[in-house]
Amino acid sequence: MTGMTSTARPLLNRRLAEFGTTIFAEMSALALSTGSINLGQGFPDTDGPEEVREAAVRALRDGRGNQYPPGPGIPELRTAIAAHQERRYGLSYDPDTEVLVTAGATEAIAAALLALVEPGDEVVALEPYYDSYAACIAMAGGTRVPVTLRPHEGSFRLDLDELRAAVTDRTRLLLINTPHNPTGTVLTREELTVIAELAVERDLLVVTDEVYEHLVFDEAEHVPLATFPGMRERTVTIGSAGKTFSFTGWKVGWISSAPGLVAAVRSAKQFLTYVASGPFQYAVAEALRLPDSYFADFRADMLAKRDLLAGGLERAGFKVFRPAGTYFITTDIRPLGESDGFTFCRALPERCGVVAIPNAVFYDHREQGAPFVRFAFCKRDDVLHEAAGRLRRLASAGS
Q: Rounded to 5 degrees, what are φ and ψ at 122?
């Protein structure tokens, strides 16, 4: 026998056939092979607070979390998550029945969708969206219904009438992301009010991805959807330590919700990772108790990085959508005489030694995202200065 037996069916489950290797893997490999600055994938190039890292070291040495932690997460972390939600937003959750620790926000999304969506259910999601949304909806057997955020007066905005029209009798769930990756949009209190009223009126569940909750800039404010009337009992709120404390490799996320929804998500989660990140859970429990000054300084530092890279991109000739949240900048490449983000991003490393991500990968309607490209600014200032300098070659080439 010289090879694998052929079968009439493809090896990959047909629900996942459209996804293949992620664009992040492709572009990160391109960054390595060309020695380019990688502004594609959203991870910081420096670690978070030293005291949080030392808390993880202490937990390892003390033997806390080196064996399986409790299925819902260690009590110290669940208590810290509940206290964070109460202190920040006035949301009261029982750490024992209304909080669940997950292997990052990505598992929280997967477990929530696998638990709450059945074949044939429609899931309305804001397009462009984080790429795991589409894959998780597919694995659950649901049908994704994208509602597209479109450029308007310097930012990407949600058309509330379009959202309302997307809801049908088959709609089970709204999948909301604010602050929004990749566009940087932060939904306003007025927009969230309409979303909440729609969910209550149509008796919909809502999964809300709020991992960038502490990264909002300028006049924007983050308001959890669960704070609106009628929403606490129907909303699964997702948070993450990776984005807030710059330890993305620790993979510590969580959900907070009503007991029935948490129990449902836990039923799916226990057959995914079961548990994860034992010692890191103790460290994140300490991180969530950091003083307000940490969160303010973190936001101010990222705001300065945003403006540093945004200025460089503008000087290079891009149209820049300055984000109100997250650590990503979406740009329009048409002023550079380009229109295909895939072609542009694949050529960019050779042209000027920088890697970015074509936003079209985050769209069902690829043509809607074709001219947009995303850059991450969660990097050291010297790296951003160097990237901005390299990108100036684009302006020189066009002059």
A: -95, 140
Q: Round to whole Å and give the CA distance between 353 and 40.
A: 12
Q: Is 353 left (phi over 0), alpha (psi -120 to 50) or beta?
A: left
Compute the distance between CA of residue 353 and CA of residue 199 in angstroms, rounded to an integer: 46
Compute the distance between CA of residue 70 and CA of residue 51 in angstroms, rounded to an integer: 24
> According to the model, what pLDDT value does residue 341 have?
97
* Whole-angstrom distance, CA of residue 19 vs CA of residue 21: 7
The closest of 112, 105, 163 to 142, measured between CA atoms, is: 112
* Amino acid (one-letter) located at 237: T
- The DSSP 8-state label assigned to residue 399 in this structure reads -
Distance (Å, whole) CA 137 – CA 124: 10
- Report the candidate in 112, 39, 5 with the shortest Cα–Cα distance to residue 383: 39
Q: Which residue is listed with tokens 């009798």?
A: 169
The pLDDT, as a whole number, for residue 204 is 98
pTM of the predicted model as reported, rounded to 2 decimal places: 0.95
Rounded average pLDDT over 313-339 = 98
Q: In whole angstroms, what is the distance from residue 44 CA to residue 67 CA?
A: 29
pLDDT tens profile 223-253: 999 999 999 999 999 999 999 999 999 999 9
**Extended beta strands in 149-256, E state:** 150-152, 155-157, 171-177, 205-209, 235-240, 253-256
Task: Say how far residue 304 (Cα) sits from the centre of its chain.
Answer: 21
- Per residue in 103-138, pLDDT tens? 999 999 999 999 999 999 999 999 999 889 999 999
Q: Peptide bond before 44: cis, by omega within 30 degrees of 0?
A: no
On the 0-12 / 13-18 / 19+ scale of CB atoms within 10 A, 280 is buried
